[in-house]
Design a protein that fits this description.
The chain is mostly beta strands. Among the domains are: 12-158 and 545-581, Sandwich (Immunoglobulin-like), CATH 2.60.40.1930; 169-342, Immunoglobulins (Immunoglobulin-like, Sandwich), CATH 2.60.40.10; 600-707, Ferric Hydroxamate Uptake Protein, Chain A, domain 1 (Beta Complex). It is 10% helix and 40% strand. It has eleven helices and 45 strands. The strands form twelve sheets. A five-stranded mixed sheet has the order 2-8-7-4-5. The chain has a five-stranded mixed sheet with strand order 24-45-44-26-42. It is globular and about 100 Å long. The chain starts with 11 loop residues before the first helix and ends with a strand. This is MG2 domain-containing protein. Keywords: Signal. It comes from Larkinella arboricola.
Length: 802
């Protein structure tokens, strides 16, 4: 068992080489800029991971299934990853309390599964979030988050009383981060209402004498900007007015006497000009570092002349999506930073064309799928596809895999209408985009972490082989952590699984669980000689949450009929197709015991049945010797290579559960044991070495009435989710088509993986249900080179039989 604090240094550089990406730093004056070097070292050590989760819909009624596909990529180049093997999914309520949790296996950059939405859930807005174990080392703001709405049609809607308040969230953001007296700055602002959307709130900036300094008004989505020069000795506040004429005051950022400001503006010829001003008379140089998702693009140095330094950036050198522009002073301390968004040109084009003509109910729909890059070249792609009925409950799908990877995953908080910044063509787009960069700019790391000379060791390691079950060993009397204590974890059953670990300096242990699927009964042990110590297992889900806030839930009375029309199909599906809805795709797991093929195997039914275990050993198990002494039984295993019995105690297992008391071993009823296996040599289990293994397997794998030690920790534990098969009836024959079973499906089709071939082609087909109306098809996909794309379309289903 490796150390709990195993770093990722040995993994990340190899992974980046595998990605085949080489970053060329365009340093102008200082090719070996130490800040750039430290950033590259940080990127190689702290690999960034991203998840995108495509759900079949965003609105559900309790009792339905929520289907999902996870795309797992590296955070710099957005190429599919094969590092972490487990993703964690949670559904959080408005108070960030988890109401549903699951663990999902990842392989080849993807994973999939489903969640049943129980009828105990209250109606409301929820937040679906996903992350890996490695991502727990960073802020939960990095996790994937998506709001979903669940309405429980079996319970009376308890809607909150919507108060008419002035609860607007208004914030001001100086460009670069600072307001410095007597230096002109661009100040961006954002005004958000209780529903989480931008509001049009005009306002003024007043000084302490109530003189109006500047007037402002939002440009789009509640965001805007103005130019402002704070005067020495003055204080400022903002006064805003809503649509009803009500005024309110909000604080304004403090003004510094000394410091730096920065301004980024278009300079023509596909260039950006960065101007840095200082309030101090100094000629010391300032540094500019530009990077796109931690991949350094440019490192430059300029002296301050007349308290001003100017840098030029080629926009062609910038990576697509969000780039960071950071200014450092002469002591290499970050003093200003802002973001710049480059609209992507590299993109995946997805075309879904229906080829089956006009559709009626219970009829086959056929779609031809084509995936290409921006040049029209075929692109092999892994797609997820959802087809569902459009009604007044189904909201417009906002946000997709490309907008998430290139925009929302690198910004804090909720982005209103992210598609706008990728698809809108009006002249307003550049200004609106830059306002977004100014108001929601942030980074996935702290510069103090990057620049520190001695990097901290990470608390969570990547789960490269399987799920980690973590725990802690403490002194039962003092509660202090205990170092160097051996711990065991077993999964009782015929499939013999045993894991071992040793507590570190902080008392922490972890067990790496390979091929660990479905609900399990766990038995966690400490060695009985450590009877004063206590073992506790930790929650595998992260208990820190982002600052995201869901809007107040409101459900208009006008949607009562559409809700009923959605609830009835759900009930019909659960009543008539329940058996088909609980079909699972069980993964193949290795059923060989953890110790492999035993040196000696005995099926007890092939031998004379003895009533006591001592006779079994004596009569036909030559590799085991049991002796009864004054203090009880001792058991030794023959070391076959050395042809002598080993002096130490073997590891004895009953259905995979360790039994440390040899008297208890000898008390096992042989008539309940189906087979006995012996390893007649030294065997290493994690950090421990045993003088052989004796493994008993009962007929039912249920310990045969044996009760583990009272201090053993017994726990029900949910392993990785066993994937559920998506079911949809087919009407290939007249008999099937004329079936009287009602088919009221509103979700006609879902697949987490539809792969196009080398020509970028694929075909999908499914049957419509008894529901007529308008249906939407949504596709999200990513190619091996990181190109991502999404497509939506719609088609009609007629109730008239042709």
């Amino acid at each position: 068992m490796n150390s709990i604090k195993r770093p990722l240094q040995a993994i990340a550089p190899l992974l980046l080489l595998t990605l085949g990406m080489t970053i060329t730093a365009l340093a102008q004056n200082e090719p070996q800029n130490p800040i750039q070097q430290q950033l590259e070292a940080y990127r190689s050590r702290m690999l960034q991971e991203k998840l995108f989760i495509h759900t079949d819909r965003s609105f559900y009624v309790a009792g339905e299934l929520l289907w999902f596909k996870i795309n797992y990529v590296d955070g710099t180049f957005h190429r599919p990853l094969s590092l972490s093997r487990v993703a964690y999914l949670e559904v959080l309520d408005k108070d960030s309390r988890p109401v549903l949790q699951t663990k999902v296996a990842l392989a080849e950059g993807a994973g999939n599964g489903s969640l049943f939405l129980p009828t105990t859930l209250p109606s409301g807005h929820y937040l679906l979030r996903g992350y890996t174990n490695w991502m727990k080392n960073f802020s939960p703001d990095y996790f994937f988050e998506k709001p979903v709405t669940i309405v429980n049609s079996f319970r009376k809607l308890e809607l909150p009383v919507l108060k008419d308040t002035l609860a607007y969230d208004v914030q001001f953001f100086p460009e670069g981060g600072n307001l410095v007296q007597n230096l002109s700055s661009t100040v961006a602002f954002k005004a958000v209402g209780g529903d989480g959307k931008g509001v049009d709130l005009p306002g003024v900036i007043l000084d302490q004498r109530n003189d109006t300094v500047v007037r402002f008004r939002p440009f789009r989505f509640g965001m805007g900007r103005f130019t402002f020069t704070p005067a020495e000795g003055k204080q400022y506040r903002a006064v805003l007015t809503d649509a009803r004429g009500r005024t309110f005051t909000r604080p304004f950022p403090p003004v510094q006497a000394q410091g730096y400001t920065m301004r980024v503006e278009e300079a023509g010829n596909e260039q950006l000009r960065v101007t840095v001003h200082s309030a101090t008379a100094a000629s010391a140089p300032v540094f500019l570092l530009v990077h796109t998702r931690l991949a350094a693009i440019q490192a430059d140095q300029q002296p301050l002349r007349d308290n001003t330094a100017t840098f030029t950036i080629s926009k062609k050198s910038l990576g697509e999506g969000i780039s960071h522009l950071t200014v450092f002073d002469a002591s290499r301390k970050p003093v200003c930073e802002r973001l710049y968004f480059k609209r992507p040109e590299r993109r995946l084009t997805i075309d879904a064309r229906i080829t089956s003509g006009a559709l009626s109910t219970r009829e086959k729909a056929v779609f031809e799928i084509t995936t290409q890059d921006e040049t029209g070249k075929p692109a092999q792609t892994d797609l997820s596809v959802a087809v569902y009925q459009l009604d007044s409950l189904a909201s417009t799908e906002s946000g997709n895999i490309m907008t998430h990877l290139l925009l929302t995953s690198d910004l804090r908080g909720t982005i209103e209408s992210p598609d706008y910044y990728f698809t809108a063509t009006s002249p307003d787009v550049p200004e609106a985009t830059d306002n977004l960069m100014l108001t929601q700019g942030w980074r996935r790391f702290g510069w103090e972490t990057v620049l520190q000379p001695n990097p901290l060791t990470e608390d969570y390691v990547a789960e490269v082989n399987g799920h980690f079950i973590r725990g802690k060993v403490v002194d039962g009397a003092t509660g202090r952590p205990v170092k160097g204590t051996n711990a065991y974890l077993s999964v009782p059953g015929k499939h013999i699984l045993l894991y071992a670990s040793r507590s570190d300096a902080n008392g922490r242990i972890q067990f790496e669980m390979k091929e660990f699927f479905g609900p399990k009964d766990l038995v966690a042990y400490l060695n009985p000689r450590d009877s004063l110590y206590r073992l506790a297992l930790q929650n595998p889900f992260f208990e820190r949450y982002s600052a995201s806030r869901l809007p107040v839930f409101d459900f208009p009375a006008s949607l009562k009929e559409p809700l009923l029309a959605r609830s009835i199909p759900m009930q019909v599906q659960n009543a008539y197709y329940r058996e088909n809805l609980v079909r699972y795709h069980y993964p193949r797991v290795d059923s060989i015991p953890f110790y492999g093929s035993a040196d000696e195997k005995y099926r007890l039914d092939d031998y004379t049945r003895f009533p006591v275990m001592e006779e079994v050993f004596r009569e036909y198990v030559p590799g085991v010797m049991a002796r009864k002494r004054r203090n009880g039984y001792t058991i030794s295993v023959l070391n076959t290579p050395q042809k002598e019995f080993m002096s130490g105690q073997p590891l004895v297992l009953l259905d995979g559960v360790p039994v440390f008391d040899m008297d208890n071993v000898m008390a096992i009823d042989p008539r309940k044991v189906q087979k006995l296996e012996v390893m007649t040599r030294h065997y290493i289990v994690g950090p421990m070495v045993f003088d052989g293994i004796i493994s008993f397997t009962t007929y039912k794998g249920d310990l045969a009435s044996y009760r583990p030690d009272a201090k053993a920790l017994l726990a029900d534990y949910e392993g990785l989710q066993i994937p559920r098969d998506f079911y949809a009836p087919r009407y290939d024959t007249p008999q099937q088509s004329n079936s009287r079973l009602p088919d009221l499906r509103t979700l006609l089709y879902w697949t987490p993986s539809l792969k196009t071939n080398a020509q970028g082609k694929a075909q999908l087909d499914f049957y419509t249900s008894d529901q007529a109306g308008r249906f939407r098809i949504v596709l999200n996909g990513i190619a091996a080179d990181g190109r991502a794309g999404s497509q939506q379309g719609a088609f009609e289903v007629s109730s008239v039989i042709k």
